[in-house]
Amino acid sequence: MTSLPISFLLTLCLFVIPSLSSDSDPLQDFCVGDLKASPSINGFPCKSSVSASDFFFSFSSLNTSNRNGVAVSPANVLTFPGLNTLGLSMNNVEFAPGGVNPPHSHPRAAEAGVVIEGSVFVGFLTTNNTLFSKVIHAGEMFVVPRGLVHFQWNVGKGKARLITSFNSQLPGSAVLPSTLFGSTPEIPNAVLTKTFRTDDATVNNLKSKFAV
Fold first, then answer.
1. b or e along 129-139 (b: 16 or more beta carbons within 10 Å of the residue's beta carbon)?
2. Using one digit for the tens of pLDDT, what is the confidence trace for 123-168?
3. Bond into 145 cis (ω within 30)
4. By the 8 A CB rule, do 112 and 141 touch?
5. Are 142 and 136 spatial neighbours (Cβ–Cβ below 8 Å)?
6. pTM of the prediction?
7. Across the beta sheet with 100-105, what order do the strands follow?
8. Which H or E element spans position 200?
9. What DSSP designation does 33 have?
10. pLDDT tens for residues 28-65?
11. Quick one: CA dihedral 143, 145, 147, 153, positive or negative?
12. Helix (H, G, I), strand (E, B) or coil at 8
C-alpha cells in the first residue's frame, strides 16, 4: 500500500529538483539593477525609477599601450545595469599588433565572439589538456565552453578587435598569471616552486611582475 505514495514522491522530486537548479523565469519585463544595493543570488534589486538611458550603452575608448597590448571594455551588470537578471553581457576587446589576451577563464559563463577587425589566433584548453585553436579573421566567430582556459593573440600586421558575449550578466574572469603570481595574500613559494618545477628566485621574479 505504501509503494504508490513513495513512487509518486520520487517522480515528483525528479520534476521539481531540475526546476530549482536554474534561474526562474522573470516575473516582469525588466529589472534595471540598483547598484547601490547589495546583490542577491540572481542580481541586484530593481531600481524604482528607470529611463530610456538605462537600456543603452556605449563602450568606452580603449588604450592598448600596456605590456600585453590588449584592453577590454566590459558591458556587464556593473557597467550596464539594464542587463540585470537577463543572463547576458558583452565585451569590446582591442589589440595592438602582437597583443595577447593572456590565458584566463570565465567561471560563470560560456563565451562567443566575433572578429570585427584583424586576424586573431584563438585557443582554448580542455580539462584533458587538449588545445583547440585557429586563426580567425574579420567576420568569423569562435566559442569557448564555460570555465575553460582560453586566450587570444593578434597575429595580424595591424590592430585587431573582438566583440565577445557571455551567457551571464557577470561572467567573472580568472587571469592565470595574475591569479597565480599576484594574489593577495600571496600563494606560498613552496607551492609554486613545486608546481612549476622551478626555484624561489624565478617565482619571486614572476611575483614582482604581477604584484598589485
1. eeeeeeebeee
2. 999 999 999 999 999 999 999 999 999 999 999 999 999 999 999 9
3. no
4. yes
5. yes
6. 0.86
7. 131-137, 119-125, 150-154, 100-105, 174-175
8. helix 200-210
9. B
10. 899 999 999 999 888 899 999 999 999 999 999 999 99
11. negative
12. helix
